[in-house]
Specification:
The protein is of the alpha/beta class. The protein has a single domain, classed as NAD(P)-binding Rossmann-like Domain (Rossmann fold, 3-Layer(aba) Sandwich). Helices cover about 45% and strands about 15% of the residues. Helix 1 crosses helix 2.
Amino acid sequence: MPRPAVAARAALDELTIGAGDIVLVSAASGAVGSLYSQLALSSGASVIGRASALHDPHLTSLGIVPIEYGAGLIDRVRQSAPLGLTAVQDCHGGETIAVALELGVQAERICTITGYAAKANFDVRMPTDYRCTQQRLEEFAALAASEGLQIG
C-alpha cells in the first residue's frame, strides 16, 4: 500500500488540490490514480477519471465522474467539465497532458508521475517528495478508517 499512496499524495501536494478544483485524472482505476482521486475528493475537489468503461461502476461508486479512453476524449472532457478543468493528474502518459494543454490548462496545473512528459517536451510538474513518512501513513490509515478509502 505505501508506494501508490505516497505517489498519489506527492502528486496531489505538487498542485495543492483542494475545494473547488475540477481535476482530470488519467488511469483513475489504477493504484495511484484511484488513491489520488479519492484523496482529491476528500479535499473537496471534483474528479473526472479516465479509465476503460469496465471500471465505470467502481469509479462512480467512489464519486468520480468516469470518462472512457479513446477517440473523442477532448469532447468527453468538455461535456464532463463544462466550466473547464483547474488541474490534471497524469498517471499514464501522453494523451491526457496534450488534451489538458489543448483545453487551456496551464502547465503549472498539470502533474505527471510518468516519464512521458520529458520525452515529449511537455513542461509540466512532477512530484518531488516521495518520502514514506509516519505522518503520511497515519493520514492514509485515518482516511481508510473514517472515509472508507479504498486501496487496491
